[in-house]
């Protein structure tokens, strides 16, 4: 039985959810600033850093689907920070708003004990947008921040693998 399934650890799970909801507010603020001015790509870096904090905490409590979903959000944030096309950045912001919404619902489900994750959420439109974005990212190499570790840069395969692991 993992931490997430242990009834005696409910308080820790609730604390994770409460902290994650606060971090989701930070993510929303980043996205709102990006939406106002899509050239502020530093907000995408900040998005990646904040969602990484949720990912780390999710891994520590065994909320693997949330962690993987955060990893995908982090990859999109970091990779899109390399984009200069304002129209594409506007689309990225919209997709990250969708990701923010889905992540919030996943955290809410966990907090209420309904750990069905993405299975119980309608994700088809989001998946369609991710696949479109995936195609736009094909030729972008992430270089300014190491992704997994110092030897591995974010490449298209990492996004493909994350989507696959989520069943998307």
Keywords for this entry:
about 170 residues, mainly alpha, Four Helix Bundle (Hemerythrin (Met), subunit A)
Give an overview in words:
This protein has 168 residues and is mostly helical. The chain has one domain: HPT domain (Four Helix Bundle (Hemerythrin (Met), subunit A), Up-down Bundle), CATH 1.20.120.160. It contains six helices and no strands. α1 packs antiparallel against α2 (42-61), α2 (42-61) runs antiparallel to α3 (64-80) and α3 (64-80) packs antiparallel against α6.
What order do the helices and strands follow? HHHHHH
Could you tell me the mean pLDDT?
Answer: 82
What is the CATH C-level name?
Answer: Mainly Alpha
**What's the Cα radius of gyration?**
15 Å
Main sheet summary: none
According to DSSP, the number of beta strands is 0
DSSP helix count?
A: 6
Overall spatial form = globular
* CATH-defined fold name: Four Helix Bundle (Hemerythrin (Met), subunit A)
Q: Report, as a whole number of angstroms, the end-to-end distance.
A: 26 Å
CATH superfamily: HPT domain
**Category from helices, strands and their pairing:** mainly alpha
Under the CATH scheme, which architecture would be assigned? Up-down Bundle
Beta-strand level of the residues, as a percent range? under 5%
Name the poorly predicted regions. Answer: 143-153
| Number of structurally distinct domains | 1
Helix content: 55-70%
